[in-house]
Amino acid sequence: MKIWVDADACPGEIKDIIIKAAHKRQIETIFVSNKIISIPESPFLFTVRVSKGSDVADEYIADNAEDKDIVITQDIPLAAILVPRGIIVISVHGVLFTPNNIGERLSVRNFMSELRDTGVQTSGPKPFSNKDKQKFANTFDQQLFKMLKHK
Length: 151
Hints:
Blueprint: E1 2-6, H1 12-25, E2 28-33, E3 45-49, H2 56-64, E4 70-72, H3 76-82, E5 88-90, E6 96-97, H4 102-117, H5 130-149
Parallel strand pairs: 1-2, 1-4, 2-3, 4-5
Antiparallel strand pairs: 5-6
């Protein structure tokens, strides 16, 4: 079991929660980004720097994550690739993507993208809040517990 983090847009508070859990539970955790990110030195924490470009980090995660891994990402198309493969996917806002909700989430995302492409102004994502941080921490902890219990 590994934790993969789509680190390009991961809020610092979420990164801290992930790092703390990786240390506590001794789980290999890989932060994938197209820029340099700083993490504490640890035998459990790793960074992978990919080349700049649209979806390069997502492709790396999709190619390397395996069944029973956990992926942290805001990228719904990436989640739509991973969920059917048995990979646990959680957004930084604490949403657990499942076979039951990923299709609808992808449809809404694609619809909003099409609206923006035609020039319609959309509100964009809400700012990251303490409530989001707490929801992420709860969802992440529940999924870690479940995965470690079935290890």
